[in-house]
Every structure is written in structure tokens, then in C-alpha cells.
Write a structure and sequence with these properties.
By secondary structure, the protein is of the alpha+beta class. It is built from twelve helices and ten strands. Strands 3-2-1-4-5 form a five-stranded antiparallel sheet, with no helix packed on it. Strands 8-9-10 form a three-stranded parallel sheet, with helices on both faces. A hairpin with a 4-residue loop joins β6 and β7.
Length: 414
């Protein structure tokens, strides 16, 4: 598994190196986006005729910037009558200089740093309190993910790199950072990571297929024209696909981590239950002692039934064994699937427990479909099997001898 993780990591690193944006030397800023908004306080708002048309009404807003070259000066600009800006508001404005030397003032946003900072601190505190060290790791993964978006995804897309490839590489990098930082470096996290990456690849293929079949262009509204005005070669359809890939990452991470955690938890509880059975001290237990002791633990069906039900699995009692399996799956289903996958021309099934009855039924079904089958029962402790078997042998050793004899006969017949 770790080899597969290493291969995925190598692919992600190669993708980052290949698609990493270069340093741009262009100073062209067609939309005036390079300016840094400055803080300002609104000191008055009046309704007056617009400067560009006296027949129309505008809100004349007077502000005092608190930073920048114009700090402390009283400046005015106009907004429509439906503007939400009121006297006393703290806002952010872009201040530029027009070709004729006049100041251009544009409303950017309200000042939200204080409430957003408070919300961020509450969010981080809740995660740390509830998740403890895992919460700290999750926050670190979130910060690293934001750095990938800011330092790699946005510059690479604006530079004209293939948006889908950028999204796949970024999603892979985010998966590595988020999962390992939040859940630690272990087999469970590695399994969740590989599942997420495989699902991302399937998601990308399906998204591309249905975007093509549905003729989705990414030109949903006029806001896409904003990208064209940046003067960069951005493909709206590729941007749409990239959004699907990155957007699905969060869902995939949750699903894969939840599923892997359930399996690992079931394994942990099962091992704890079995390891709690006392063995004879001072010596290594013989096979009979081991099976007898654990047989006592396996008779507690209620505990095991509750454990499997909690994880959405099915419990099937047997002779000195309890089978735990997904609902709707048994040895018969597995045997039929295996025969179909391998296109087997004949089947021999050997069993010694009640759980093998489903496989016996499957062999009978295959016989009815024209596939030769032989039923072998190991021992006669289970009458339900012995009565249906074509051949009953004393035990596992004789089953092995039978298989060896069949293999030798087939070898000589070639």
C-alpha cells in the first residue's frame, strides 16, 4: 500500500513542478485590480443631482481615509440611490488616478476584519476543543490547503495552464496534506488517501464525459466576461471541470475517511474482544486450547451482533467461528462471482461449516447451468454438509491430498 502512496506522491510532485506558475513580469492591469483597498470612515451621505446627469439623483458620499497617501483628507464619490452605504460606516475603497489626474474612488467592501477574525478564532477553538490533536492537525491541513489554492491553483489558472490538470494536481496535494495532518501517518489514512485519489480520477473522467454530452460551456452568466477582461487565456469549460474536481474533494475525503474508520474500528474492537480471552499461563497454547478458549468468546453472540450491526455488517454464526460480512454477501455469492470472473469450466468446493451451505447451493446452481461441480465435506461433524456432499473425507489433510492428486492427474493429462 505504501508503494502505491509513494507513486501517487511522486505524480503529485511531478505535476506541481510541471504546472508551477512562473514569475510574471507583466504590469498590465486592465481592470484596476492591482490596487490595495484602503480603510475609510463615512462622515456624510447626501442625496444630490449626479455630476454626470443633473436629471438623475445620486448619493454623494464623503469619506476620510485612514491609510494611504490620502489619509486624513476629505474625499467624495457618488453611488446610486440604492446604495447601502450610510453615515458612520467603515468601508474599504479603491483610490486611483484617472488620465486627467482626477481621483477615482470605488467602493470595494465593508470593513469586516473584526467580526471575521472573531469568527475564525471561535471556529478554530471549537475544532481544537472537540477534535483535540486531530483538530489541530485538521486546522493545519486547512491552512496548507489554502496555501495550495493561493500559491499554485490561482496563479497557474491565470497563467493559462490546463485548468483540469491543475485541479487534479492541487486536489492530490490537498488530499495528502489534509488527510495525513488530520489523521496521522498510518495504514488507515493511506487507504483513505488512495481511495480519495482513485475517486478523484473517476470524478474527473465522468465530469468531462457529461460536460461534453451536455454541451456545458461554463458561460453561465455575464460574470464569465470578467475573466476575459483579465487578458489571460482561461477556458471557461476547463474552469467548470476544475471546480467540479476540487469541489468533490471534500465530499470524497469525508466518505473515504468514514468508511475506513468504520472498518478499522471494527477490526480494533474485534481484536480487543479476542485478545481479552485468557490463555493458559507459562506456555504457548496448543491449537485446541486456543480454539476452545476463543470458542467461549464466540458464544457471546449478542455482543458480536451489536458490534456488527453498529457497523452495518451481517453476523453469521458457525462452528467455532463467527463470520462477519457485508449484507447480501455470502460464500455462495463469492463463489458465483469468482466462477464468472475466471470463466471456470468446473468447480470443486470443500467445506466443513454451516457457512458453506450457501456455497453448496451455488455449486448446485452451477450444475444446473451446465458447469460440472464436486462437493467435498471435510469431516462429518456437520450432518447438513455431509448429507449433501459427493465425497466425505476425514479432515483437512485428506482435502489437501485430494487436491494434490487432482493436480497431478491434470498435469499428466497435458
Amino acid at each position: 500500500m505504501w508503494i502505491a502512496v509513494g507513486c501517487c506522491a511522486a505524480l503529485v510532485v511531478i505535476g506541481l513542478i510541471t504546472l508551477w506558475p512562473g514569475s510574471s513580469t507583466s504590469s498590465v492591469d486592465p481592470l484596476g485590480l492591482d490596487g490595495e483597498p484602503v480603510r475609510a470612515e463615512v462622515v456624510s451621505v447626501e442625496v444630490a443631482p449626479c455630476s454626470y446627469d443633473v436629471l438623475l439623483g445620486c448619493r454623494t458620499i464623503e469619506i476620510v481615509p485612514s491609510e494611504g497617501p490620502e489619509a486624513g483628507e476629505r474625499l467624495t464619490f457618488e453611488q446610486g440611490l440604492d446604495s447601502p452605504i450610510r453615515n458612520g460606516d467603515s468601508i474599504l475603497v479603491d483610490i486611483g488616478v484617472a488620465d486627467d489626474g482626477a481621483l477615482m474612488i470605488l467602493f470595494a467592501a465593508y470593513q469586516r476584519s473584526t467580526p471575521l477574525l472573531l469568527l475564525t478564532l471561535l471556529f478554530a477553538a471549537a475544532i481544537v476543543v472537540l477534535g483535540r490533536w486531530k483538530g489541530v492537525g485538521a486546522l493545519a491541513g486547512l491552512a496548507a490547503s489554502l496555501m495550495v489554492i493561493i500559491a499554485f491553483v490561482l496563479p497557474a489558472v491565470l497563467e493559462g495552464s490546463h485548468a483540469v490538470l491543475v485541479a487534479l494536481v492541487a486536489a492530490g496535494a490537498i488530499a495528502f496534506l489534509a488527510l495525513f495532518l488530520a489523521h496521522g501517518v498510518n495504514l488507515a489514512t493511506a487507504a483513505a488517501l488512495l481511495s480519495s485519489i482513485a475517486s478523484l480520477a473517476v470524478t474527473a473522467v465522468l465530469a468531462w464525459l457529461f460536460v461534453q454530452l451536455s454541451n456545458l460551456t461554463g458561460l453561465a452568466n455575464e460574470s464569465i466576461g470578467f475573466l476575459g477582461a483579465l487578458g489571460t487565456d482561461i477556458n471557461p469549460e476547463g474552469l467548470l471541470l476544475a471546480g467540479v474536481v476540487i469541489g468533490s474533494l471534500g465530499v470524497l475525503d469525508d466518505v473515504t475517511v468514514t468508511q475506513v474508520s468504520a472498518v478499522w474500528e471494527l477490526k480494533r474492537e474485534a481484536l480487543e474482544r479476542l485478545c481479552a480471552v485468557p490463555l493458559p499461563p507459562g506456555r504457548q497454547a496448543a491449537y485446541e486450547d486456543f480454539t476452545a478458549a476463543h470458542g467461549q468468546a464466540l458464544t457471546d453472540h449478542a455482543t458480536w451482533a451489536a458490534l456488527t450491526e453498529r457497523h452495518g455488517l451481517h453476523l453469521e454464526p458457525g462452528r467455532l467461528v463467527l463470520e462477519i460480512r457485508p449484507p447480501g454477501v455470502d460464500k455462495g455469492v463469492a463463489l458465483i462471482d469468482y466462477v464468472q470472473e475466471t470463466d471456470a469450466r468446473a468447480v470443486l468446493y470443500a467445506g466443513d461449516d454451516l457457512g458453506d451451505l450457501a456455497a453448496y447451493d451455488a455449486v448446485d446452481r452451477l450444475r444446473g447451468e451446465g458447469v460440472p461441480g464436486l462437493l467435498v465435506c471435510s469431516g462429518d461433524e456437520v450432518p447438513e454438509l455431509a448429507s449433501r456432499a459427493d465425497l466425505v473425507v476425514p479432515g483437512p489433510g485428506q482435502v489437501a491430498a485430494l487436491l494434490a492428486a487432482i493436480a497431478e492427474t491434470l498435469r499428466r493429462a497435458r
